[in-house]
Amino acid sequence: MLTFSMKNTHTNGHHLQPEKIMSRYNPVEIETKWQSAWDESGVFEAHPRPGCPKYYVLEMFPYPSGRIHMGHVRNYAMGDVVARYKSVTGHSVLHPMGWDAFGLPAENAAMEKGVHPGEWTYQNIDDMRAQLKPLGLSIDWSREFATCDPEYYGQQQSMFIDMMEKGLAYRRSATVNWDPVEETVLANEQVENGRGWRSGALVERRELTQWFFRISDFAEELLESIDELVDWPEKVRLMQRNWIGRSSGLQFRFRTVDAPVGFEHLEVFTTRPDTLFGASFAAVSFDHPLARLLESDPEVAAFNEECRRGAVSEEDIEKAEKTGFDTGIRVVHPFLDGVELPVFITNFVLMGYGTGAIFGCPAHDQRDLEFARKYGLGVVTVVCPPDGDPAAYEIGEEPYLGPGRMINSGFLNGLEIEDAKAEIIRKFEESGSGEGKVMYRLRDWGVSRQRYWGCPIPVIHCEDCGAVAEKKENLPVILPNDVRFDGRGNPLEKHASWRNVPCPACGRMARRETDTMDTFVDSSWYFVRFTAPRARTPTVREDVEYWMNVDQYIGGVEHAILHLLYSRFFTRAMHLTGHLPKSAGEPFTALFTQGMVCHETYKDGEGRWLSPEDVRPRTGGGLETREGDSVTVGPSVKMSKSKKNVIDPEDIIESFGADTARWFILSDSPPDRDVEWTTSGIEAASRHLQRVWRLVNSTVGQPDSTGSQASRDEENANLFKAMHRTIDSVTNDLESFSFNKSVAALYEFTSTLARSAADPASKAVAFRVLAQLMQPITPHLAEEIWEMAGGEGLVVSSPWPVADPDMLVEDTVVLPVQVNGKRRAEIRVAKGLERDEVEALVLELGPVRNALGGRNPKRLVVVPDRIVNVVV
RNA sequence: GCCCGAGUGGCGGAAUUGGUAGACGCAGGGGAUUCAAAAUCCCCCGCCGAAAGGCUUGCCGGUUCGAGUCCGGCCUCGGGUACCA
Question: Which of A74, A293, A326, A450 could link A185 by a cystine bridge, Cβ 3.0 to 4.6 Å?
């Protein structure tokens, strides 16, 4: 393929090697060459380097689905930029890779394709590793592991036993989605409109005894420590705070009337004790012991049954219409003589929060107001807004939720809300029937899964000894291979020889726990394991102390709450069980959340999704199918199989090379926002990289330009000035995760270089800097041009260039001149020019004099070196 | 439902703490080169208007000499919602 430009052969052909004339930058060939060079040099293996600070950069490890997708490319390209940048700026870098290998899809594949989940998973890992390697990532592959390796999950089992001993793991009853046809527990994802996704049967809620981690004991600690996470996105910190959901309020006991024996009191929790005088009903969860007891009444039973319908997800519960059942029981208002409030069973009070019982004050709560309207309950306004008339204020259509003073509230009248809360809590505490209490939304972490493809919980149930931890010398408890997937229940339940084992305590025959662990457990400590991936203990003190914490963690914002919170809990639990030193509190010092990779969507005339491969440009504009039918272009959305708008990274790397893919995916959008993949964009990236190569290739070895020494000196000086400005921008942009801006600065510098009439020797200096600046983003091309421009050794191990501050200063500055806030002129002045001198210059300007018409300005705003505004 | 975020030309986006809106790239238009094309190089490019000028950062309102940026109220799209990972 001869594509070398004729212009170049005309002007300097006699200086070029013949093969240079014939060649073009061939990414695939050259990328393989440099990847081998890196492998041989071992530059990416993590070792403590004396005198260098350590830097641990980690991207969220992938689930081995079998194919890498553009989201992976983006994630790992970003992490690689950071790892490479940190490496050349004098850090000893740890940048590992592993596989989040347990999970549902492997079991689904087992059922659909009859392949064993383990076999399926390990094959996928091999495939994905082979797709990932051509990206040229600076990963220490010697530390790779999968969470389904017994060497990994065995250590996890060992920690589970330690957590049992410390009381951090315990058993209690909890609700699951139950598919009565498949006799299987369903994940929330497997429930569609209240029905099992395969069987179509109405899902039931079922109670099972399950294992939990006591994360709620750490609620306050996890909440307070968010303040330390200054290098996390503010939005993630806020989401975590809200998730933990600390609220203080009052817990107190109502006296009941006409209630069954044992329920002489009803304990409620409220965050608005100030509104007690406006209460018009009490409500308990359908799971509340009182509601359960009343189920002997068929009407109550039917109502509760109705409430228990549907999936267990919070979204489903909250979106369901609020309903109630009047039990006929009443509670006595503690401060209003003779006032009794009806007690309802409802579907919106959750047993898992507070006491599972509340009182409702319709005037100051949206949900309570809707409920009161529906069931004809009274509405008493007890908070008067600051601008309202305390004697006459009443709420209208909407509840009043703002600040104000108490009215219609006996001894609270006239108090501000916060003072009223304090006062009423004091009153309850005095009488001993209630107390101020802090409540958290955060619930304990249920880790039991009734599935095969997960880490077995290392426990044996003995009739005499109860739940007994497996002996550590028997770990790992390995998943049996000979299992059958018939779509019913957990295969481990049916595996007699695996299940029936002697009790570790008394030796009598007992039953092995068949629940496996939530895959979030696997991903809650893998980053610690990377510090000593082959150790015979979960961690090795020396390695953990050197490498932890993760300095920079990068991944999708979809993990903003659960995965990150569980990991934060785990480092604390691992400390309590002796697996992490005291210094390790937070797992991730800095966090970056990346956006998704999107692509346009296409549909044919019948509304069927079309893949980008199936459409082509139509002459005269628009798109058509291969058959020439018209195509409807839809919005750009996250790449997904269901919408067929997927571009396979492997195809892109094959046709354009990894550098082009990396350059493009980092170029257009800020990393924390979604990026749209476009064909024209990837082609532009490819064109640019070709241009860089051509530029270096055609310049190196040229004789000095003719022309005067003075003009050459000036050209050289200008080039170096641009070079230092670029070093400065790229450095700042990489440090601040503005990779798109780094790319823009590199585009600009390449254009400058292409136009520059500086000496080839000066250009060679600039090319070497260009190579160094491009290295984190397009490492293969960087090595190639580094070599062409006479760089020593590998660019991957050459120190990052430093901008000379003297080269960055400008001595003049352009001041925009506004009249009444609209730009009318601009003046170039010496930097730091005095205010009155600027004023004098500005008042002489034509547009300013016109606007003033001989009068004095009302005001003259001068922001030195920034802007001038003349107010007329 | 609840929590969090995003919205700027034809498109992706840029804009230190409120200070020239549209850097850089794509698409488009024009030119050079070529027998011709591809490739490459150069120039133009927010909208309306003949021009003067006016308008413009999802919508409505506010604060300010000055608002993409701050405040209040909406709209649309996206993420999470505890068993998808």
Answer: A450
